[in-house]
Design goal:
Blueprint lengths: L2 H12 L3 H10 L18 H11 L5 H8 L4 H15 L2 H13 L7 H5 L6 H6 L4 H7 L4 H16 L4 H9 L6 H17 L1 H9 L7 H7 L5 H8 L4
Helix pairs in contact: 1-4, 3-5, 4-5, 5-6, 9-10, 10-11, 10-12, 11-12, 12-13, 12-14
Length: 235
């Protein structure tokens, strides 16, 4: 581990809060058999991590960030992800940032790590590059690989490019994990926020087949009478 990455981890530890760490451990499901099993929290807030990112992003190397992503501490990995996003804003470094992100994707292993990064780093990158990698991730057995792919398309949605989100939603229509159901439903809702017709056309032949959680997320912002009609199967 480099001196800088070790220094950042030490700084995070000095900011840690035991009670906050306990609450975060429960919130992010770190118990036996849960999706965040064995993850370790220090109890550092996101604003405090962003201050560290602002302080070190100019001097930190990809090797240093790799060390952070390898850390057992959740907040160190999150800080590493935030630093990668910062690196990715530089077009000359964006490809290297995405390469490291994908190489270390097994360490980006909770929904907050994915959701704060994929729409901004891989989203911007793959909007302008071949997207084959994303569809390989969708076929993965890892829920985090899948969520990275789905959340990457949030960037596409903001650019009114809905096609790949809808393709992924079809592939994942019967996925059993609620974190994937929620992500897909959320992205369908975001499409609807921009073009209601696109979302309702998609739902028309699928809403009775998709998991209830996915449907509830997808129609959350619908008018109440329409939302009830979907939930009652009366469309």
């Amino acid at each position: 581990m480099s001196q800088l990455s070790e220094h950042i981890i030490n700084e995070l530890q000095s900011l840690g809060n035991y009670e906050k760490a306990k609450n975060l451990s429960r919130f992010f499901k770190t118990g036996p058999g849960e999706y965040g099993e064995n993850d370790i929290f220090i109890g550092v807030t996101l604003p405090e991590q962003r201050k560290i990112v602002a302080q070190y992003h100019k001097e930190i190397s990809f090797s240093d960030i790799s060390d952070l992503l390898d850390s057992v501490y959740h907040e160190a990995r999150l800080t590493g992800v935030l630093l990668l996003i910062k690196k990715g804003t530089n077009k000359e470094q964006q490809s290297d940032a995405v390469d490291l992100y994908l190489k270390k994707k097994h360490t980006i292993n909770n929904w907050d790590l994915v959701d704060c990064s994929a729409p901004y780093l891989t989203g911007e990158y793959f909007f302008n590059h071949d997207r084959t990698t994303l569809f390989q991730l969708v076929q993965s057995e890892s829920i985090w690989d899948i969520r990275i792919a789905v959340m990457t398309t949030f960037y596409f949605i903001r650019k009114l490019d809905f096609a790949d989100t809808l393709k992924m939603a079809d592939i994942l229509l019967h996925h059993k994990h609620d974190l994937i159901q929620k992500a897909v439903g959320w992205m369908l809702r975001e499409i609807g926020n921009r073009d209601m017709n696109v979302e309702t056309d998609f739902l028309k032949t699928r809403y009775t087949k998709m998991p209830r959680t996915m449907l509830r997320y997808a129609i959350e912002k619908f008018p109440e009478d329409l939302r009830k009609a979907y939930l009652n199967g009366n469309i």
